[in-house]
Amino acid sequence: MTERIPCVSEGCDNMILPATAAKTGGYCMPCKQEMEREAHQRYIEANRRDVDLYEGITDAVQILKIMHEPRTYNELIRYVPYKYSMEQVYLSLSGEQQHEMKLYAMDLIRSDDEDGGKDILLYLVCYHDLPLTAEIPELLERDIVYPAVLFKSASGETRNHLIQQVNNDEGNRNHLLMMLAYIGDETVVQQFWQWKQSAPDWASELYVAPECYTLQAGWELTEDGQRRELFITPSYSMYEVGGSDVAGSQSKNLDGVPISLLVPNSNFCPWCGSSLISLMNLHVKHPALQSVDWKFPQLDVQTCLVCSSYSVVYMEMDAEGNAIWSKHNVKPDGLGDIDVEEMSVDILGIGSSVLEVGSFAGAGERLAGIQQQVQHRLFHIATEPRQPFHGSEWDMEPSLSQVGGHPGWVQDADYPACPACSATMKAIGQLDGEMLQENGEGVYYMFACEPCQMTAVSYQQS
Ligand SMILES: [Zn+2]
Ligand SMILES: [Zn+2]
Ligand SMILES: [Zn+2]
User: Fold this and answer.
1) Mean pLDDT, the chain, as a whole number?
2) From ligand 1's centre to the CA of 75, what distance in Å?
């Protein structure tokens, strides 16, 4: 048997064969590989160059085309990001430029980049509510059936065609119902009402009743077959001033006014003992709330951040309009078994400005700490409204935090029922989990029932 010899690396105890040593200069394979990795790293650092694909380009359409271009990874190139986000560049487009982008998207779809083309159309529809009435027949011909929001501007003719197709096209039925929900005109409302009155044969093959698809598009049928909106408009973006998150970087270009967000108060959650927090507190005269019938001067949406991430948390208003824990709240099974302190860290993250919200000990001290931290944060609400569907497509990473507008559901649409009157509660706004903590996930959704003067908060995790 050949005698093994030690690796020549200082501090390495590995024994190697003389044959290996002859090949590696005396090093064991792990040491040899580590040295090669380091050398490669030094080479990259010495030779990597910055590439600014946007240098000298000022036309927003050109900039967006570059942004959408797929980039092959090359470790010797570091692409300099553009000074504004894709969302900001889209928002800056003139009507003519939107048209130009739409033509470009259709060209991509006709060539070989269907997904790239669809992405562009999605941004144009959500950020500018650009109608695709003329393009929709071609999309359908090419078997493009989602995202459903693209189809909301379909013509009456296309809509009739889609209604027919639902009956025959089993494979696409799910998508077709979603499209019809987004179209949502009077004919569609009547059609869903008919399906509700008398379920079609194919209804049993769906996971939910046909009329439940309307929820995905933000409306429902009333008892007498009318369309009832499930989110309020207009919509205004909310963001942290000087924040490093997506929404915050957005703010550099936006005029805004201060808004009270994420303010902890002196009441505690009866389930977990955390300080309740006012997610959003807005004067009812704010134009975002023009369609909301609220009896008190402020619409104050309070909740327990810990518990609302497990279950819908309802709040009622007392005679003075102060938010109080609702007697209708039902503690979810299993919540009592969860270690709140551990859970709060899990949910709120280390280094978060609201980190200590969930722990039981030292409540007073903790509250003071949170208030001090929150005082350093400044939130604004935009002075101009944005499109109702701006924040609705969660996975295209728009700035999510908003009052009003279609919710950006992470999962399926899930509007809570008011526990007092059982009506579906209306979405009144949402906060991006990132706003609550660094690297925060998911979205907190806010709802209201006007007749009962109740609010609700729920959460969906990404
Ligand atoms: Zn070694
Ligand atoms: Zn709680
Ligand atoms: Zn109610």
Assistant:
1) 89
2) 28
